[in-house]
Amino acid sequence: MTKMLTYLKPYWRQVLLGVILVLVEAMSNLYLPNLNAAIVNNGIARGDMHYILRTGGFMLLVTFLLGVCAALAVYNSSKVAMAVGRDLRGDVFRKVQSFSQAQLNQFGISSLITRTTNDVQQVQMAVLMGMNVMLFAPFMAIGSIIMALQQDVTLSWSIVFLVPVMGALLALNLRRVVPLFKLMQVKIDRLNQVVREKLNGVRVIRAFVKSQHEEKRFGKANADLTNTALEIQRHFALFMPLQILVINMANVVVTWVGSHRVDTGAMPIGNLTAFLTYIMHILFSVMISVMMLSMIPRASASAARIMEVLDVEPEISDPLVSSKASDAGSGVEFHKVEFAYPGAQAPVLKDITFAARPGQVTAIIGSTGSGKSTLVNLLPRLYEVTGGRILVNGRDIRDMPVKELRDLIGYVPQKAFLFSGTIASNLRYGRENATDEELWRALSIAQAADFVRAMSGELNAPVAQGGTNLSGGQRQRLAIARALVKRPLVYIFDDSFSALDFRTDAALRQALMEEVKEAVVLIVAQRVSTIMNADQILVLDQGRIVGIGTHAQLIEQCEVYREIVRSQLGEDEVA
User: Fold this and answer.
1) Per-residue DSSP letter, 351
2) Positive or negative, the Cα torsion across 543, 549, 554, 556?
3) Which of 45, 298, 420, 480 has its CB surrounded by the most CB atoms within 10 Å?
4) Same fold, 11-178+235-310 and 332-408+488-574
5) What is the mean pLDDT of residues 166-191?
6) Which residues pair with 442 in a beta bridge?
7) Could you name the CATH architecture of 11-178+235-310?
8) How many CB atoms are closer than 10 A to CB 352?
9) In the 3-class helix/strand/coil scheme, how is 378-440 assigned residue by residue?
10) Could you give the CA distance from residue 407 to residue 560 in angstroms, rounded to a whole number?
């Protein structure tokens, strides 16, 4: 929580103004009982109506000042809290954007969503309440004690017994509640995870008739969170009546003792009413502090979770000194590249060495789990290599700024993802200044122009989140068109033709090869027919290259490739 205070530094003027406003508000509140006592002692007791009206008018003026300061304090603290929340969300978002895929997997998508939204909101509310309640309560408590002593020192001994009792109750309650607040945030993560899986996998759930199973799983996570929240509220439900009991007992004792002092003439009745008001102020301040302190543990737990994200150093970062291209036009080269996932016992990729030149199509094929997608994900540094090096135009990719590297790459992922917006906004995701003519050209090459023209609005046709209003094949073709609009140096097609029928696949590849003649093209594929005409084919098996060459060469030389061809095209093709 201490590190969170650094987010208040840019707004120190507003914080200082808030302190002043709350201080004036508290002083006005403290002055009103004195004025009321003066009216009772001097005005009503003497029957001086002029004094009552004059003092009463001054009370109205003080009340108006109190109201103005209270309104300004709330407005000012709201601005600061919203600004802190904005800065925190921005920093968390930017930090997450810099994470490698391995670091994203380490935290989990559901947890990162919770940390960016719910956890930031908890800190934001703590700042909002802190600048009002947390500042107001101690001012009121200390000021009320001083003012109560001025009214009657003997009667003030009741405060000595009252405050420790309230403090002991508060400490006991917080000792039990703080661990529950930390646990509650973890259970919110779990609930988000279950909901996210249920929504993303709704088709699978329905296809396997597992709706009741998922409802039970959600019910269990929901009940777990509910039980923790109820446990917290039970503690406060027990604490509040005890607190009110102490307050009322104190009120009774002060009234009883004070009435005897008034009766003996040791204390004016106006001072007794003022003293009772100050006692209520003290107790009210303690109650407010309890309410505030009930938020602090949760906000502290949320702050710790946020700092876990902000304190992580990204695995992938820009170099201190950027190198220059030493061999422009040499394309992409892998030199004895090795990669292992964090915590894995063995590398996924081992001793990967090959070169992909401009104007050359390099295809990668292999059995499921052989490391094909992992290999191409190393090039844009979605994962960081754990051994060897990758060169682009003679430069080690770790010596290039990440943005510069990724600007050179047009990436079509295995699972095509589209953003909510329009066809045009999705295609311009790679290059914002692309013209409509360039968009149509890319659509034509990707065999997507026909279905886009058939849509209402054409380029301005709406796209739902994730492209759910389009078929799988349409999404893949739009993702390919998006990469073509970018016109990069390197194209990566990670099994991007799997959702296409053979006719569309063949037409797309023919048009594509004409368009990317000057670029490096890497194609990951499952179908042999997709990559038969590639300039070179890499065959992966258990993370190693077991064959490299053209289709004809691999038929002769590579047993693994022959098995793949035999399983897909039959014995005649192998022969």
Assistant:
1) E
2) negative
3) 480
4) no
5) 75
6) none
7) Up-down Bundle (1.20)
8) 25
9) HCCCCCCCCEEEEEECCEEHHHCCHHHHHHCEEEECCCCCCCCEEHHHHHCCCCCCCCHHHHH
10) 35
More confident residue, 64 or 149: 64
Task: Kindly list the domain boundaries of the chain, sorted by start residue.
Answer: 11-178+235-310, 332-408+488-574
DSSP bridge partners of 421: 463
Q: What is the DSSP string of 214-273?
A: HHHHHHHHHHHHHHHHHHHHHHHHHHHHHHHHHHHHHHHHHHHHHHHHHHTTSS-HHHHH
Question: Are the C-beta atoms of 411 and 482 separated by less than 8 Å?
Answer: no
Tell me what pLDDT residue 572 has. Answer: 58
CA distances (Å), 142 to each of 30, 149, 198, 570, in order? Answer: 10, 11, 53, 89
Bridge partners of residue 365, in order along the sequence: 539
- Helix, coil or strand: residue 339: strand
User: Phi, psi (5° rounding) for residue 183?
Assistant: -65, -35
This prediction has a pTM of 0.69
Closest CA to 101 of 401, 381, 492: 381
Query: First CA to last CA across the chain, in angstroms?
Result: 70
- Quote the distance between the C-alpha of residue 441 and its chain's center: 38
User: Assign residue 513 a region: left if phi > 0, alpha if psi is -120 to 50, beta otherwise?
Assistant: alpha
Q: Is 542 helix (H, G, I), strand (E, B) or coil?
A: coil
Give every CB contact of residue 208 below 8 A, 6+ residues apart in sequence.
none
DSSP category for residue 447: T
- Topology of 332-408+488-574 in CATH? Rossmann fold (3.40.50)
The DSSP symbol for 321 reads S
